[in-house]
Structures are given as C-alpha cells and as structure tokens.
Amino acid sequence: MRADQILQPTHEGLYCIPGDFHIDPLRPVHRALITHGHGDHARAGHGSVLATAQTLDIMAIRYGEDFTASRQIADGPVRIGTTTVSFHPAGHILGSAQIAIQPDKGPKIVVSGDYCRRANPVCAPYEPVSCDVFVTEATFGLPVFRHPDPMQEMSRLLASMAEFPDRPHLIGAYALGKAQHVIALARRAGIDGPIAIHGALQRLCDYHQAQGIDLGPLIPATAADMPSQLVVAPPSAFSSPWVQRFRDPVIGFASGWMQVRARARQRGVELPLVISDHVDWPQVTQTIRQLNPSEVWITHGAEEGLMRWCALNGFAARPLRLVGYEEEPE
User: Fold this and answer.
1) Which of 41, 184, 206, 274 is most solvent-facing, going by the fewest CB within 10 Å?
2) Residues 6+ apart with CB under 8 A from 49
3) Domain CATH code at residue 242
C-alpha cells in the first residue's frame, strides 16, 4: 500500500483511509485526531477526539466541556481500523504532539503538526520519530528565517525596560503557548516580581501553573497602581480601547515574523522580539536530514522553498496545499 493510499488531503483536512479518521480537521468530522490546541488545528464539534490529555484539557478550557461528544486520551499506541497510531512530543506548545501512523501494510507516516526543535520551558521537547513519510509544516520554510536564541531577545527586553523605566512594556503574545513562553523566559532572564497579564490569558496561565510550569507571580493588568513594568497581552488587545489605559507604552511583539521588519512597522511595534514556537529554516532542514524519510510532504507555509531544498538534497517531496491553517498569530 502506497502512502497516498493511506493518507490524503481532503476539504476537511488530512484523512487516513485505513483508520477512517482525520488529523486536525478544518470542519466537524466523526473522528478527529488533534495535534495541539491552537484554534487552526483544534476545533469543536467533532464526534470524537483523540489527543494528549493536555490538549483535551486546553480544548475544554477554550470551547467548553461539551466541545466533543467523546474524548480519548492518547497515552500509548491506539488501534484504529487497520492502523496503530501513537502521539509523540512536538515541542510547540503544552500538550503538542506529532502523530505517527503505522498501517498493517504500508509505510509509516509521521504527521508533525506544528513543531519546534529549540528547548521551550513550557512544554516537552521535540522527539524525533523515524518514519518513511514525514509530513512537515513550512511556516518559516525559507533560508532567511534563522531565529536567534530567545534569551538574547529577552536581553533586549530587559535593556529596554532599563532604558525606559517609566514606560510600561506591553508585549503582544498569542494567548496559548507564546504568552506562557514569554513569561517563562522573562523569569529565566531574572524578572522575579509580578508580571501583569491581560484577562484573556488568565485561565490558560492558571492551567500551565496547575501542570507544574512555574510562571511566578502574575497580576491583572487592570490592577490599580499596577506594580509591574512588564505586561503580556494577546495581539488583539492592541487594536482595542484596552491599550489606552497605559501611558506612553513601549509596544512589543513576540513572534518569529518579527524578523521581517516590514511586519513590525505595519503593527507599530517599537520592540520586535523574534521568539518562535515553530522550526526555522535550519531546524526544518536538520529534521529532514536526521529522519531521512523516503518522502517529505509539506502541509502549509513556504512550500516551494522547502520543495526546492528537498529536490537539491535528494528527498522526494510533495506539497499538500492544505488551507485554513496559520489563521492565528504565530
């Protein structure tokens, strides 16, 4: 059985034929396997959902306890149809996983979802999984994207806070994963006092703390006489009246896209912080070399750039041209 007889792109998303399930489907389906809790991968309304315990918890926080009719924790190999599936850490956000599909007959396929090779203090590290077919994202799949050490970016934040001690520093970071990542990095950089957070971050930060991830003291950004110079908020807050409560703030944004200066200017970002939870160009090419799969399938992002690299380096590759992902800020 060929790989394209096992896994195929459809309007709903990737569909496994011998298992009769979808991975990160874009529309409600009867059986969904979910790689992680970001809204462009995890949607409510499926008949059943198989995911890591943390991803299921996150989906319940975001969508309510009734986000699916049936849920199952992926805590080991699971038999579905004529396939065996297993979940392996992706290093992207808390609970994120790659999904390995081993049919009874045919090649082993690993769907990586969104993944990152750089150590992240708020989630388990990426685990290489040998396979015949590797399905990879290419969000930053161009040679120009080479993300710096995140602690280097934290040093820039601390330097700005020292230079402008009377100006609050508002850092835009996506509510799930990136916000907690930024807070944890700030702690490692030596910020021990209270960090203020937008209300939209509270429940997800509380969940990370409950999972044993120490984010230190957090206070509401709306607190009277707020004793914190550092404020973390979702990007949407910066286009709302909420931001007007702060006097002469330094506006920052934490994203791999901040390497593109035009994007920072468009957002009015004074302090761009290049902090990403995705693989950059060296990481994605390193991963392909390390796994040495027979085929590379590219789900979304800079497909053509990675396709070209694969061709030049002897890897058979194909673009899946899936749409509907990357809808949320990186």
Assistant:
1) 206
2) 32, 33, 34, 56, 59, 67, 68, 70, 71, 72
3) 3.40.50
